[in-house]
Specification:
This protein has 334 residues and is of the alpha+beta class. The protein has 9 helices and 14 strands. The protein starts with 9 loop residues before the first strand and ends with a strand.
């Protein structure tokens, strides 16, 4: 798109649905293929239009609310975007945020204006913490936020496995040893118990508690189910489970992606008392086998830098690390 760098820039509230197309173009310029106008619109349909932010009995921000702004030049071209938001299940006091600026307009104070607006909105609602993310592959993104009082909470990066080069037979003993130890490996599709999805939710809640990549609590069951088992890109036979007796103790799950031949490992978690026994690796091997049978040539996932056990598993399977992002936090109130 043709842009005039000398244009006067202003912030205004996002217009729905008028801004969908331009916002999509901006986001995809920064991170190609990251979104569509349809997906933004669909997400908006799921979110209440009326804010109900309030302070709870402990004096911490609760409820739902958000603000969204765009930076626009005098020709009406959107060259920046920012949003701050809160969902009811997020830890009391916390607000999330996202922001970005067109590459041609960085270092001109636009990002600072957007971030200042989001922080002012957070302070007006007496938030305790403002969280966000910055990409580790965008030059100067981390110093930009550190100079404005943010600190790094986590570094999460992508990993990629070339399935055309993967030798599944090399790891056959790993799966067999887990089975011989009395652990059953199956899939969600193979279980008929009505309560299985509830048990799976409880497993994810428990395993997320000490996952360095997990920031806030999981949403309530119905919302979690929409996110964890979306009809568009999940299958019950791609939810690989480990069971000890009648107890669900581990999970690893695949998603399809918009890229043909590429699948994504959405989540892997093992109950604390069962870790170190090769169960996570066995589940991931089952998922790799399923991905190969489905015709995939690449398997992707992501992992937090400090999650040493999962890093070890992924590297041992041949995953190669790629770009990622920093999760950043700024304390606004004690």
């Amino acid at each position: 798109m043709s842009l005039s760098k000398s244009s006067e820039i202003k912030l205004r509230d996002m217009k729905v649905p008028e801004d969908y197309e331009q916002l999509t173009s901006l986001l995809n310029m920064i991170d190609p293929g990251s979104t569509t106008a349809q997906s933004i619109e669909e997400e908006d349909r799921q979110i209440p239009t009326v804010s109900n932010l309030k302070m709870n009995e402990d004096g911490l921000l609760a409820g739902f609310g958000r603000t969204r702004v765009v930076a626009e030049d005098d020709k009406g071209q959107i060259i920046g975007y920012g949003a701050s938001f809160r969902a009811p299940w997020v830890e009391p006091g916390n607000l999330g945020s996202v922001f970005c600026v067109h590459p041609d307009f960085r270092r001109k104070g636009i990002g600072g204006k957007i971030l200042a607006h989001l922080e002012n909105w957070a302070n007006e609602h007496h938030a305790s913490v403002l969280s966000s993310i910055v990409m580790d592959w965008i030059d100067d993104s981390l110093p930009f936020v550190q100079n404005r009082g943010f600190v790094v909470d986590a570094h999460i990066f992508d990993l990629e496995l070339d399935l055309n080069q993967f030798n599944n037979a090399k790891y056959g003993d790993t799966v067999e040893q887990v089975i011989q130890s009395g652990i059953q490996l199956t899939t969600l599709a193979d279980l008929t118990r009505v309560e299985t999805e509830t048990e799976l939710y409880e497993l994810c809640v428990e395993t997320a508690k000490d996952n360095p990549g997990q920031y806030s609590s999981l949403p309530p069951f119905e919302q979690w189910r929409k996110e964890f088992l979306p009809e568009a890109n999940s299958r019950k036979e791609w939810v690989f489970l480990a069971i000890d007796g009648d107890r669900l103790i581990g999970v690893s799950q695949l998603f399809s992606t918009e890229d043909e031949g590429v699948l994504y490992t959405n989540y892997t978690g093992i109950l604390k008392e069962y870790r170190g026994r090769g169960i996570a690796k066995a589940l991931k091997l089952r998922s790799i086998e399923a991905a190969m049978k489905a015709g995939a040539h690449t398997l992707t996932t992501d992992s937090e830098e400090k999650n040493a056990p999962m890093q070890l598993i992924n590297r041992s399977l041949g995953y190669i690390p790629g770009k990622g992002h920093y999760r950043i936090l700024k304390k606004l109130r004690k």
